[in-house]
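Changelog entry: the Elongator complex protein 6 record was regenerated in this release. Current contents:
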Amino acid sequence: MAAVNPLLASLDIKPTDRVISIKENGNIDSNFVITHLIKQILLENGKLCFVILHNTLGHYHNVGKRLGYDFLKQVDEGGIRTIEPLKDIVEEIGNGTHYLIDDKEQIVKALFTSIKNSIEELAATAPNRVYLIIDDISHLLDLGIDLKYIISFINYCLSLVNDDRVSVVINTHVCSKSDEIICNNLNYVSDVVIEVLPLKTGLSREVTGVMSIEKSGNAQVTQFHFKAYDKGIKTFHLGESVYNLYK
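Regenerated structure tokens:
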């Protein structure tokens, strides 16, 4: 994936990076990584199946407009397929179907079937890459789904990369032991692990947080400070924050 902005240059994601995991720790939001990846996917005319478990369509549209792309237009034109399990739950209250059934294993199987169908349909429309982004998989725990079924669901999704044109991006927020288990499983199979952390020293006017990047086969972990703005993210090496903010 060719980098076109400072954040993506720092991430240095390549087409050979088929499985990407994003881990957010503490009171910090990693959503900026996802919205910038979406921008790059669209710039490269890629297709996206987006499983939304955390924010709303309106949120991604508003952030996308600030970053220079029209999320809802891409949805309307078929470049992005969205799957919203939480919205489906609201619509299905009282019906006892899909996400409200007692068989939690069936929930993840039904969700994966929706994902697989969307990926196959997107792949059939163009020769370009197809991405699956899940934001964020931790919320499956909130639906009462057993950890073992979530791990199985992850394995289902990872099977999609058997198609050389498919990449999978999964975001996880870590605040419990179960979240840690999910993250550890993802880290083990990921080509790239991106971790977003708050500053150990607390809040800072100059720096929002720390981003670490670990690539498979490379023992070295690269770390950056980052500063969040309304229209983007600025990254810089540790210790260079003040200098870079005023460049």
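The domain at 18-194 is CATH 3.40.50.300 (Rossmann fold).
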